[in-house]
Design brief:
The chain is mostly helical. Helix content is 68%, strand content 0%. It has one domain. The longest helix has 58 residues. Essential cell division protein. May link together the upstream cell division proteins, which are predominantly cytoplasmic, with the downstream cell division proteins, which are predominantly periplasmic.
Length: 100
């Protein structure tokens, strides 16, 4: 009679263990898939970061700045023919509010 009690209890424990094993494997697979997705996202973000770094380097390049200054802003470096040098002592500025 003792065996009649233990067989159903052991059967229930084996079934509970099997269900727990299936659930654990399912969660493990779900976590693995999430991990793979996050690694892929990290790689995509790394590529995007490298593109942004490249774009920033291009925008800060001296040749580009020089081209924008010359073409868009019409700025040119000063040369000797366009430079006026004033000889003599520098004048003292009048105090603020004084009439010229």
């Amino acid at each position: 009679m003792n065996l009649r009690i233990w067989v159903p209890i052991l059967a229930l424990l084996v079934m509970a263990s099997a269900i727990y094993l299936v659930n654990t494997r399912y969660q493990s697979r779900a976590l693995f898939i999430k991990s793979e997705q996050l690694q892929l996202q990290a790689q995509e973000l790394d590529v995007a970061w490298r593109h942004l770094q490249s774009d920033r380097a291009e925008l800060a390049r001296n040749a580009r700045i020089d081209r924008i200054a010359r073409q868009d802003l019409a700025l040119y470096p000063a040369d000797l023919s366009r430079t006026l040098y004033i000889q003599g002592k520098p004048s003292i500025l009048p105090p603020r509010g004084a009439q010229p």
